[in-house]
Amino acid sequence: MAFVKVATTDQFDDGDRIVAEVGDTWVAVFKVDGKYYAVEDICTHDDGPLAEGELHTDAPDPTIECPRHGAIFNLRTGKPTFPAVVPVDRYEVKIDGNDILIDPDNPINK
Fold this sequence. Notes:
The strands form three sheets. The chain has a four-stranded antiparallel beta sheet, with no helix packed on it. The protein has one domain: Rieske [2Fe-2S] iron-sulphur domain (Rieske Iron-sulfur Protein, 3-layer Sandwich), CATH 2.102.10. By secondary structure, it is an all-beta fold. The two termini are 21 Å apart. A hairpin with a 2-residue loop joins strand 9 (93-96) and strand 10 (99-102). It is globular, with a radius of gyration of 13 Å. It has strands at residues 4-8, 17-22, 25-32, 35-40, 54-56, 63-65, 72-74, 90-91, 93-96, 99-102. The protein has no helices and ten strands.
């Protein structure tokens, strides 16, 4: 699968998030300080829905806190805090006009 549309930029204000189903993958897209981040919407600790957690924007990098056990995932790097130990899959985000695109077959974890 190539890049596919998951949302449009007019669906977001800063601090907003949406969840989109792309094939067999649920992806959470966040807008923080004008930048878009996309991660798989599954906590690597217990498969909880990350997008339902609290978004933290006051650190150097934005993070999302899993609502089940409190693992915190860096949206820029995917790296977690305990109890999660495996990074969440992240996706490159491209903006094409008003469309927000990701490639669900090529997660990036750096």
